[in-house]
Design goal:
Blueprint (H helix, E strand, L loop, with lengths): L4 E4 L3 H12 L4 E5 L6 H6 L1 H19 L15 H25 L3 E4 L1 E4 L4 E5 L5 E5 L2 E4 L3 E3 L12 E2 L1 H4 L8 E5 L3 H12 L3 E6 L10 H14 L2 E4 L3 E7 L2 E6 L5 E3 L1 E4 L3 E3 L32 E3 L10 H15 L13 E3 L4 E6 L2 H6 L4 E7 L4 H5 L6 E7 L5 E8 L2 H13 L4 H5 L10 H9 L8
Parallel strand pairs: 1-2, 1-7, 2-3, 7-18, 9-16, 10-11, 10-16, 11-12
Antiparallel strand pairs: 4-5, 5-6, 8-17, 13-14, 14-15, 19-20, 20-23, 21-22, 22-23
Helix pairs in contact: 1-8, 3-4, 3-6
Length: 461
Amino acid sequence: MNPDVIVIGGGPGGYVAAIRAAQLGMKAAVVEREPQLGGTCLRVGCIPSKALLESSHKLEMAQHELATHGVNVMGVSFDLAAMMKRKADVVSTLAKGIEALLAKNKVTRHRGTGRLAGAGRVEVTADDGTKTVLEAPRIVLAVGSRPVVLPGVEVDGRLVGTSTEALTFDTVPGHLVVIGGGYIGLELGSVWRRLGSQVTVLEYADRILTGIDADIASEALGLFRKQGLDIRLGVKVKSARAAGAGCVVECDGLEAIRCDRVLAATGRRPATDDLGLETVGVATDKRGWIPVDGQFRTAAAGVWAIGDCIPGPMLAHKAEEDGVACMDAIAGHWSHVDYDLVPAVVFTHPEIAAIGKTEEQLVAAGVNYKKGVFPFRANGRARTINDTTGKVKVLADAATDRVLGIHIIGPAAGDLIGEAAAAMSFGATAEDIARVCHAHPTLPEALKEAALAVSGQAIHA
């Protein structure tokens, strides 16, 4: 019997959409070409990078921080192969968990590359070239994204690579050049710096972390440079290529940089090439995104799209929300994703997290706002864990006090932003957050104090 819905892509958006479809009573199928489900995020993105970030951070703690706690560790060393095995084990365990979830919800998995083949039809090509055609009245495109590589950067998958290769180095590069000062470049640059690489980050813009509040990004820049990252701003990379046993990177106005490896981390683009969109009369926009309406419907009847292949933040959690909302819409239920309230996290140390509007956006829009800032150095829990760098910033409407944005740099920022997201989703004012009783001593007290600071009433600053 044919499924009620076919999802092309088994990443965060795709597998979540299929599970939601099953919960709503639909017979669902997922088409995914990779052996492991979970998409880029699980296989070669969010999860493996965070595993390496955690392992390398523990090494740095043992080398430089534990003595502060009275813990003396002599002769600290690391085993790169063991780190990589742990990373692979984490990925494998989670991928098997997704398989179990699909089985639990009676979602059929088809291994192969999915491509539209006309209305209600999906052609699945297996690794051996065998083609099978599946049919369903509803097809959801959840094909994700792939790395953007600048012209002149010759990726060979060995010495010059993307984040995929940088997650699997079998030796620590003596000198790693990272092209791009965004999330991916700074996270993976931090990993290899901690493990002993000289890391040079080349960023075309005049700042790092474009899209993050400029004040927070500026503070991060200073901290990362103190940690040893050689971050160069306003640099236009002309070319990067393997040269013998190493690499050469050429930039406008600078001498050629010779290094051991190059990581191209200059963003991502929708993976909508060769998807068969023309067979159903759908065209992408100039960035490769598939246009959809508020219910995730494309221009073709019976075809929906979610995640990185449609406009919006290219984040795994956004794709998951799309997947649930899309299936709810298909089932005739209320459906909505607020793209203004999608949190973003950079898992460096300190962590950086944000939700809502930045100060620059509020100024540009002419919004009259108030600001409350609280430093972690004044937080009791931050003191006890010896992690006092950074701050929490709350931006609120000057007239209504409604919170418009929350920006954090400091310990556990990625966890703290969850409370911010919940509060803002319910339309909280700064006073609402300030009047919530927070346990002591905890890091979330810094958010409470920043909310108090909006009206000049912070207690501990």
